[in-house]
Amino acid sequence: MRVTHVITRLVVGGAQENTVASVLGLRQRPDLEVDLVAGSTAGPEGSLESLVTGVPGLFTRLPDLVREVNPWRDARAYLALRRLFRERRPDLVHTHSGKAGVLGRLAARAAGVPLIVHTIHGPSFGPFQGPLANAVFTAAERLAGRVTTHFVVVAQAMAEQYLAAGIGRRDQFTRIVSGFDLAPFLAARNDPELRARLGLRPEDFVVGKIARLFKLKGHDDLLDAAPALVRQCPRMKFLLVGDGTWRARLEARARALGLAQHVIFTGLVPPEEVPALVGVMDVVVHLSRREGLARALPQALAAARPVVAYDCDGAREVCREGETGFLVPLGDRALLQVRLLELAADPALRQRLGRQGQALVRDWFPLERMIEDLYRLYLRLAGRA
Q: Quick check: do 2-179+366-384 and 183-364 share a fold?
């Protein structure tokens, strides 16, 4: 079976890491021929292209496939995808992300591809944007949904949101969580040397956040809460892992709030270095207002670190209240402060939540399970076709 995956960009991010891992894993199946198409990657978020460019016959770069809406380049990308599918004649096209998801599925249908699968890594519409944008993106998703054979969702919340918007039927959705290599996170430890290099003292209570420095990721909410948290717990530090176009503004905000000694920006970090950073964190927060199911949450739990997350999209599927961490209503900075202070004061609570979270992740999130579930889905769809 020939399978072509399509994603808009290969920046450092959860959807992109999922896609690269899926492609590389599925290529190991002897009855699959798998390749990947993506647009150009540039910017402070970093790139995962090096993971796929060295594999012969795997990767095709499509320069006109861009994230922003650009009618001229979007038309060129659609035509290029349609031409590519007609030449390669895949049995199945599997799309990821918003722009590649819409253009890729429509081009696959026009090229006569028998099976079209789309993974919903996060919603294209919702309260995080205005009514005009919601109307446009919902219409685009409905159009692409009509030519979609099957949807993969990284969290059941995504299926419910799309069904509520009139996209797809319930039997078209399969949840396959975004698996990853658990071993480095299971082995993560509180390394005193790494702490020292980051300017952290042994007694510091470290609140970690792993996300692009960009809108909707919740960094401003954390900075809003930070002054009161530091007043009540002077040993609290905030370790922000990632980079993005908002870095300079967030650094300036931290200085203006008098938090320069309490907020550490790591900058861009290769994915293989993230487990060590999680190891020096005492708790991981995730305050995104738009996310399917952030990989930072199960990764933190794999390292036995409790999580505090906004109750947004699929977060509650792994951040279980009082079991693996604490859920906070969107924008509730007061409760966010309460939960972080509670965890700072209670090491036994942190250990209990972390252990229970680790047990959950061991079962659900092995990379091998994700690859096997995708493989079986492909075979099932091919058999039905």
A: yes
C-alpha 116/C-alpha 45 separation (Å) is: 29
pLDDT over 70 at 133, yes or no: yes
The C-alpha angle with vertex 262 and arms to 257 and 263, in degrees rounded to 5, equals 80
Give the residue-averaged pLDDT of 189-195: 96
Residue 321's identity, in one-letter code, is: E
What is the enclosing helix (H) or strand (E) of 33? strand 33-38
- Taking only the tens place, the pLDDT of each residue in 325-343 is 999 999 999 999 999 999 9
CA atoms within 13 A on the CB side of 251: 12
pLDDT tens digits along 233-283: 999 999 999 998 999 999 999 999 999 999 999 998 888 999 999 999 999
Q: Does domain 2-179+366-384 have CATH number 3.40.50.2000?
A: yes
Indicate the burial class of 246 (C-beta count within 10 angstroms; 0-12, 13-18, 19 or more): middle
Domain boundaries, the chain: 2-179+366-384, 183-364
Question: Looking at residue 377, what is its pLDDT?
Answer: 97
The answer to whether the CB of 114 falls within 8 A of the CB of 2 is no
- Alpha carbon separation from 9 to 67, 130, 137, 188 (Å, rounded): 7, 24, 18, 29
Compute the distance between CA of residue 13 and CA of residue 4 in angstroms, rounded to an integer.
Answer: 20
Amino acid identity, position 236? M
Domain 183-364 CATH (choose: 3.40.50.2000, 3.40.50.300, 2.30.29.30, 3.30.420.40): 3.40.50.2000
